[in-house]
Amino acid sequence: MSLPEPVLERIADMVVVRDDLLPGGTKRRILDGLYPEAAELVYASPAQGYAQVALAHSAAATGRRATVFVARRAVPHARTAEAMAAGAHVVQVPHGYLSVVQSRARAYCDATGAALLPFGLDIPEALAALAGVARGIPYQPSEVWCVAGSGLLSRALQAAWPSARHYAVQVGRPPSIGGASLFRAPEAFERDAREAPPFPSCANYDAKAWRFIRRQASPGAVFWNVAG
């Protein structure tokens, strides 16, 4: 299935990559072509993680089974509910520290032969795919901003636009961001951004870059908005 090209929109002197318009967001661009021989893809997700949503939409579009392992909550997080609505099979793990959730996902894949997706989808094939998407955009930025979970997106954008200045905003564990300059969001990972951008943006992820962008980004800089 061919995905639409990223939509670019000028907002507040920025060029925003509006992947919030793509069901599943930017990670969907990775997943549709990943492990094509696998009938079932499995991911161990934080409750607030967006990869579970991307996986659900990708599996539905490519005719595969999506299984998401996530910590049990009295009320599933809205992103887990969205993944379920898009067709994912969700396994809620009691007492689910992320390490426990990941262990349960590995054991399931060992038993079933399903393909376990790496945390953050941080593998060379994914980096190459994202860099290819960025190179296809009809705009050559001199400055690029994004949020860094694993740091995969920032490294892919650096590969696509090596002459640009790159900035990444850390939202969780220390990321691997190559040569980008790093800022750290003050909010805990599970908390929403206190300063939201004027467009749909994942509240505990991409939106946390906006406080830094509106104070420090240059006019015409690119901000890659992964999801809404």
List the helices and strands and how they pair.
Elements: E1 8-11, E2 14-18, H1 26-31, E3 40-45, H2 51-62, E4 65-71, H3 78-85, E5 89-93, H4 98-112, E6 115-116, H5 124-135, E7 143-148, H6 152-160, E8 165-170, E9 181-184, H7 210-216, E10 222-225
Parallel strand pairs: 2-10, 3-4, 3-6, 4-5, 7-8, 7-10, 8-9
Antiparallel strand pairs: 1-2
Descriptive account of the structure:
It is a single chain. With about 230 residues, the chain is an alpha/beta fold. The chain has two domains: about 10-25 and about 125-225, 3-Layer(aba) Sandwich (Rossmann fold); about 35-115, Rossmann fold (3-Layer(aba) Sandwich), CATH 3.40.50.1100. Helix content is about 30%, strand content about 20%. It is built from seven helices and ten strands. It has helices at about 25-30, 50-60, 80-85, 100-110, 125-135, 150-160, 210-215; strands at about 10, 15-20, 40-45, 65-70, 90-95, 115, 145-150, 165-170, 180-185, 220-225. The protein starts with 7 loop residues before the first strand and ends with a strand. The model has no long low-confidence stretch (mean pLDDT about 95).
Overall domain count:
2
Query: Count of helices?
Result: 7
Unreliable residue runs: none
The N- and C-terminal alpha carbons lie at a distance of 22 Å
- Please tell me what the overall shape is: globular
Helical percentage: 25-40%
User: What is the top-level CATH class of the largest domain?
Assistant: Alpha Beta
For the biggest β-sheet, the strand order reads 1-2-10-7-8-9
Mean pLDDT: 94
Largest sheet: 6 strands, mixed
Coarse structural class: alpha/beta
CATH architectural arrangement of the largest domain: 3-Layer(aba) Sandwich
